[in-house]
Amino acid sequence: MILSKRGIAVIKNFEGLRLNAYQDIAGVWTIGYGSTRYNDGKPVKPRDILANEAQAETLLKCTLTNYVNAVNKGASVHLSQDQFDALVSFIYNVGTGVVRSSTLFKKLNAGNYRGAADQFLLWNKITDPHTGKKVVSKTLTQRREEERALFLSE
User: Fold this and answer.
1) 3-state per-residue secondary structure call for the chain
2) pLDDT-derived band of residue 130, with 50, 70 and 90 as boundaries?
3) What gap in Å lies between CA 44 and CA 85, rounded to an integer?
4) Domains, the chain, ordered by start
5) What sign does the dihedral 137-82-16-21 (CA atoms) show?
6) Nearest Cα to Cα of residue 10 among 80, 92, 65, 71
7) pLDDT 10s digits, 25-50
8) Active site residues
9) Angle made by CA atoms 89, 18, 56, in degrees to the nearest 5
10) CB 30 within 8 A of CB 18
């Protein structure tokens, strides 16, 4: 499957556009629409700048390839377009490692779509950089609720 225009819009909405490198809520250097690495694999660094929105668009499209491929390889059951889009948005935010190890994908691949949908809501925590403890993020809670709703829509 491929990510739909709606799926791209969902990711853009959650990530926002920043042409100057910034640290996300987890402290990772990020640029454009949430990219942490460039097309050549080099990480985003402080003071990096993208020239314009078109450059950010190109970077996003290249970045998305890894996440689209991860969902295509990791999901062994039929997915609707909305389910696919929700999963790509989810792993774009948390990383491709969840495809192999998460309860969400285990439930999904067992055909338990409702159980998989409910797993989105558990991924709403970040590590507080000051205390090192996991804390609930309002931003991630909202994102997971919206991804879950998209996953369940038909």
Assistant:
1) CCCCHHHHHHHHHHHCCEEEEEECCCCCEEEECCECECCCCCECCCCCECCCHHHHHHHHHHHHHHHHHHHHHHCCCCCCHHHHHHHHHHHHHHCCHHHHHCHHHHHHHCCCHHHHHHHHCCCCEEECCCCCCEEECHHHHHHHHHHHHHHHCC
2) confident
3) 25
4) 5-152 (1.10.530.40)
5) positive
6) 92
7) 778 899 999 999 999 999 999 999 99
8) 15
9) 70
10) yes
Residue 82, pLDDT score = 98
85-98: buried (b, 16+ CB within 10 Å) or exposed (e) per residue?
A: bbbbbbbbbeeeeb
Q: What's the start-to-end Cα distance of the chain, in Å?
A: 17
| Averaged pLDDT, 130-146 | 93
pLDDT at residue 24 in the model: 86
List of residues 6+ apart from 130 with CB closer than 8 A: none
